[in-house]
Design brief:
This protein is an all-alpha fold. The protein is built from 13 helices and no strands. The longest helix is centred in the middle third of the chain and has 35 residues, at about 175-210.
């Protein structure tokens, strides 16, 4: 079977499995959305009426296929917490924050990690190589939300470069909106930059041991010329897959970072919706995350195949 066809079939089946698991797993989580909305003082009749209004009284299989059909048509139901607003409208309001946060983080990761990794691996075993290893390990060991707290303390409270907790919407000023996302994006990016630098260094060191590098040196090419013209291209092949995984993770939403910086994105919405048993919203966000992760991995596989047909 054709490579691309197999990947496409795998893509569709994986999405269906995620939809199936996410729907049925949320059905067994303790708690009742109707009780969460009405409160513990609500009567049985009020709870039953609300459950019927949102379709929670239907057979679970009927509800699953009804919800799955809504995923393809964009009708994800109504939020039981934020209603009468629909889930699609609610996610549409929060999605730009998460997407811009992800895009800024990916830009930082790509622009910084690849050249840093290339430079640090220029002299394997040298002082720069060893120091960068230690720095990478430190930043990889500290979670993004902890780095967010440290960034807030240093740049927000001590240096007063931004106001912690303040959010400016794009409508109130796009420049201020992007500036407000800079430090949260930095908190998301730092651990990923450390990981990518370390991965890039490993790939570069492996390439430097190959015969074509010695041949290039014998022909009189400079060290910088060899690194940027030859080694970089070949080193990027395995790094592409790794960056693809990072892109998927970042674009899926950095839940705790949004919580730390009080950003009204999908991460903060997901946390609040789980607490309120707003399963329509939770399931929709889980599907969004799954679609992003699976799509990015699918595209990475295709790009890798195009770059290296031997795959």
């Amino acid at each position: 079977m054709n490579y691309y066809v197999k990947k496409l079939i795998s893509f569709v089946l994986t999405l269906f499995c995620v939809a199936l698991l996410s729907f049925f797993l949320f059905q067994i989580i303790p708690g009742d959305a109707a009780v969460s909305k009405l409160g513990t003082d609500a009567t049985a009749e009020q709870i039953a009426e609300l459950r019927a209004e949102y379709g929670y009284d239907q057979n679970i299989v009927v509800r699953f296929f009804s919800w799955l059909g809504g995923v393809f048509t964009g009708d994800l139901g109504v939020s039981i917490k934020y209603g009468p607003i629909t889930v699609s409208e609610l996610i549409g309001q929060r999605l730009p924050v998460t997407l811009w946060l992800g895009l800024l983080s990916i830009l930082m990761i790509t622009v910084l990690s690849i050249p840093i990794g290339l430079i640090c691996a220029k002299k394997p075993g040298g002082i720069v190589d060893k120091v960068s290893d230690w720095i990478s390990l430190v930043f990889m060991a500290v979670p993004s939300f902890v780095q967010g707290i440290l960034i807030t303390l240093l740049f927000g409270i001590i240096l007063n470069l931004f106001v912690p907790g303040r959010y400016t919407s794009p409508g109130d000023g796009f420049r201020e909106f992007i500036q407000g996302l800079f430090f949260p994006a930095l908190a998301v990016a730092i651990p990923k930059i450390a990981m990518t630098v370390k991965f890039m260094k490993t790939s570069v060191k492996k390439e430097l041991k190959l015969d074509y590098v010695r041949t290039a040196k014998a022909k009189g090419n400079s060290q910088n010329g060899i690194m940027w013209k030859h080694v970089l291209k070949n080193s990027l092949l395995p790094v592409i897959t790794f960056i693809g995984l990072i892109v998927a993770e970042v674009m899926a939403g950095s839940i705790m970072v949004e919580k730390v910086f009080n950003l009204p994105g999908l991460g903060l919405l997901l946390v609040n919706s789980i607490a309120n048993r707003d399963f329509n919203v939770v399931q929709a966000i889980v599907m969004y995350i799954a679609i992003i992760v699976i799509t990015v991995n699918f595209l990475v596989d295709i790009i890798y195949k195009l770059i290296d047909p031997r795959t």
